[in-house]
Amino acid sequence: MRKEEKRASRDGWIGVLFALPWIIGFLLFTSYPLIASLCYSFTNYSVLRPPSYVGLANFKELAGDEVFRKSMGNTILYAVGAVPLSAVMAIGLAMLLNMKVKGMAFYRTMFFLPSLVPQIAMGTLFLWVFNSDYGLLNNMFKAVGISLPNWLGDPLWSKWTLILIAVWGCGQAMIIYLAGLQDVPVSLYEAAELDGAKLWAKTRHVTLPMISPVILFNVVMGIIGAVQTFAIPQLMFPGGAPARSTYMFAMYLYDNAFQNQRMGYASAMGWVMFVIILALTLISLKLSEKHVHYEGG
Amino acid sequence: MTIKGAVLVLVGAAVLLTAFTLSEAVVSRAAKKDRVTILYWEKWTGDEGEEMRKTVNFFNASQNKIFVKYLSISSVDQKTMLATAGGNPPDVAGLWANNLCQLSDAKAVIDLTDLAREKGITEATYIPAYWDEMTYRGGLWGLPSTPASIAMHVNRDLVPKEYATPETFPQTFEALDAMVDKISKKGKDGSLVMAGFLPGEPGWWHWAWPSWFGGKLVDGDKITIDTPEAERAFEWIAKYGKRFGISQVQSFSSGFGNFASPQDAFMSGKVASEIHGVYKANYIRIYSPKMNWFAVPFPHPENRPDLAGQTVVDSDVLCIPRGAKHPKEAFEFIAYVQRQDVMERLCSAHGKNSPLAKVSEKFLKNHPNKFIRLFDELARSPLAFHTPKTGIFKQVSDEITNAYQEVSTGGKTPKEALSGAQKRIDGLWATYQVQVLKK
Amino acid sequence: MSLNRKAAAHIALVVLSLIFFMPLLWMLSTSVKPIEETMKTPPQWIPSQFLWGNYPKAIEYRKEELGYIPFLVYARNTLLVTVLTVMGAVISNTLVAYSFARMKWKGRDLFFGVTLATMMVPFPVTMVPTFSLFKWLGWVGTYRPLWVPAFFGGAFSIFLLRQFFRTIPMELSEAAKIDGASEVQTFFDVILPLARPAVAVVALFTFMGTWNDFLGPLIYLVDQNTFTLSQGLQAYQTQHGGTPWNLLMAASCLVILPVMVVFFLAQKVFIQGIATSGLK
Prior knowledge:
heterotrimer; B: D-Maltodextrin-Binding Protein, domain 2; 2 domains; nine-stranded mixed sheet; 15% strand; C: mainly alpha; MetI-like fold; 14 helices
C-alpha cells in the first residue's frame, strides 16, 4: 500500500515536471499578457511614457468609435464569407480526393501548395491577379466576354478578394478533412446504399455527421483566424483602402498600438474582441451538441 | 536515459548556446575603440541611401573623434519610437517632419535649440517654411536632411498649343477644369484613355486638399477638417468622378504602374498633368528621358488670387531620440549635414531643393532638375505650407484620406465625408489633449 | 464505383487543380520575364524570352537595380530562427503532451481544458503586453522573442501530440515499468520512437509557420541586417528605385521552395501523423 502511494505521489511530481515548460509558458505568455492586457485597457499607454490610469475612458470611446465598428463589421463579414466557403471547398476537395482516383497524391499536393506560400508573396501575387486592368482574373473572363468588377478599387467588392484568397488557401483544412473522411467506416456507406441512398443523401446522412467534430474544430479555428487576419490585407490594402472597406480588426489594433501610440486603447479593443470570440465559441459548442456526433467515447 | 539521449541533449545545448551568441552578434553595435560610435537610422535605400552614405563617409573622414554607422531601416518612424520606448534608441534618427509633433508631445526627442545656437544655427539659417516645420511649442525638434516642395508637372505633348507653356498653362482650378474637359480622351466604350488631370495621382498629399483652397487644418487649439474651403475642395474632387465616371476612373487608375517605373501615370502619358514633388524629375530622367515637360505652380481658386503660388513643403529630418547614448556627438553629425556645401551636395544628388536661406548660384545652375528655380522660389514664398502641427497628424491624415476615398468612389457626399471625419477627429483630439498633453 | 462517377471526378480534379495552381504558375511565368512584359494587357503567359538570370539577380546585392537587399543574409536569418523554433517546439511539446496523456497528476485534466481554451485567445489581444514583456527584458531587436517562446510549448501542438499519445496502448508503458524502467526512460525509449508521425506533423506545421511568419519579425526586428525572408520580400516592394516585379516573383518562388521541398519529403509521414492524431 505504501509503495503504491509513494509511487503515485512521485509520479505526480514527475508529471508536473514534464509539463513544466508549458506551465511556465502558459503563465508567462498567455495568462500574464491576458491579465496585463486587461489592466492596460484601463490606461493610456503610449509606450514612450509609463501607463496612466484613465478608468473606463477607453471602453466609452470604443462604444462610440465608428472606425472600430467598421473594422469589426468588415471582419465579421469576411468571416461569414470565408469560413463557410473555405469549409465547403475543403470538404468538397477532400471528398473528391477520397474517391481514390489515380494520381491522388499529385492532386493532393496541388491543393495543398497554396497554403505553403508566404503571406507577403500572396499579397503581391494577388495584387496582380485581381487587378482589373492587367490582372489575370479579369482578363481571362474578358476573353469570353464577361466583365468582372474592379476588385481592388471598388469598396463593394474588395472584401471578396480576401474571401477568395482564403478559399484558395484551404489546403491545410482539406488534409485534415481527408484524414477524417478516411476514418468513416465503409460499412455505413454500404448500409446507406442498401437503403437506396444516392450521393447527396449519403453525404448528408453519413459523411457530414461522421466528420462533424472536424467541421466544428475547423469552424472555431476559422473564426479565430479571421479575427487575426492581418498580413494580406495590410499588404494589399494599406489603411483598409478603398474607404476602409478592407480595414480588418487586427489592422486597426496594430495601427492604434504601433502607429498612433495608443496601446491602452488597443488593449481595450483586444479584450472586447476576446469576449466576443469566447461568446461565439460557446454558442457554437452549444449549437453543436445537437449536430455533432462523436465516435464511441 | 540512453547514451543517444544524452548526446542529443548535449548537442541541443551546444546549438542553443551558439544560437544565443550568434543572435547577439548579429544585432550588437560594432564599436570602434578609439572613436565614439553613433548609430544613425535612416529610411533611405537604393540611390538615395547611397548618397546619404556618401555624406556619412565624408563626415567620418573629416574628423577622428566620431564614427557614424548608417543603417537602412524600414518603417523607421515606428521602429524609432519602439526603440526609444525600449530605452535603446539610435543616436540619430532620419524621420519625416510630420513625426516631430507626436514625438515632441511624447517627450521622445531632444530639444535641439541650445545645441543649434552653439553652432550658430538659428531661424535665420533656413527658409521660413522649413524652420516652421521643425519648431513646435517653443522647441526645435529636428533639422532637415533633405527638403522638398511640390508643383504641377505638365506633359507638353499632351496639351494643345495654347496651354503648352508655363506662362499659358491654366493657373486657376476653373481654368484647369475647362482644359481637362477639352483634352481628356475617352475610348469607344466610354473608358478613360487619357485624363487631363486626376486628383488621385499620385495620392500622396490628400491632407492638403483643404489647404489648396484656402482652408486651415489647425485653428488655434482646434483641428478643423470640415470647413467651407474643405467642402469646396472635395466638391471639386467629386466633380472628377462625375466628369469621367467613377468606375471608369477606378479601372483607369488600376492600370497605373509604380511611380518609379515607365508605367507611372504621368510618364506613360495616361495623364497630361500631375501634382508632384521636386524629385519627380529624377524619375522622368530615368524612365522617360525623352519626355517634353515643364513645371508650374499648382493652381488656385479663381476668386482667391491671394493663394496663387502655394506649395506644400515636406522634409526629411534628423532628430535625436530621448535616451540616445551620445547626443552631443549626434548633433555634431547633424550640424555637419547643415553646412551649405554638404547640404547642397546631398540635395542636388537627391534632386531636391535646399532648405537653407542662403543658396549658391552654382547649386541652382548645376542642378539636375531644369526647373529647380521654380521649386526654390515656391518654397521661399510666405504661402508655402506644411503638414498641420499636431501630435495626431497621422490620424488626421488617415481621416482625410478616407474622406477622399469615400467621395471619389461616390459613397458619400463631401459634406457627409468631411463631417464624419471632423466628428471622429474631435473625439480623438479631445482624448489626446486630456491623456497626452495635460500630463 | 461507376465509370461515369470516376470520369467526372477526374475531370473535376483536373479543372480544380488547374485553378488552384494557376496563380503559382503565373508567379513562375512572371519570374522569368523581362520587366516590360510583366504588366502587359492582356497578360502574357509565355515570356518572349526566358530570363533564368532573374533568379541569381534576385539574390545578388546589386546597387543599380535593387539597392540593399541581402537575400542570402535574410535566408540565413530565417533558417536560424526556424531551426531554433522547430527544435523548441518538438522538445517542449512532446514532453508536455506526454505528461497530459500518460502521467497522472492532480488537476491534469482541468489544466488540459484550460490549455485548449488558450487556443481561443487571438494574437492581437496578447500582442501589446507580450511586446512590453520583451521590451522589459531588453529583447526587442533580437531574435529571442521569436524562438524562445517555442521552448515553452504551444496549445495546438500539445493538443495534437496528446491525442496521439493516448492512442498508444497503456500496456506498453506498463510492460516497460515492470521491466524496471523509470518514467523518463519509458518516455525516451518506448513511446517517443513510436511518435515519429505526430512529431513530424508538429515539426512541419511549426516550420511552415515560422518560415512564413510576418508579424513577429515586423514587430521585434529592427536592424535591417537581421531581417527574415518575409520582410526581405516586402523590401522588394518598397524599393525607391521602382519595384522589379519579375525579380520579386523570382524571390518569392525561392522563398517557397524550401517549404515545398520539406513538405514533399515529409508528405507520407505528415499525412500519417494527421490521420492518427486527435484532430478528427
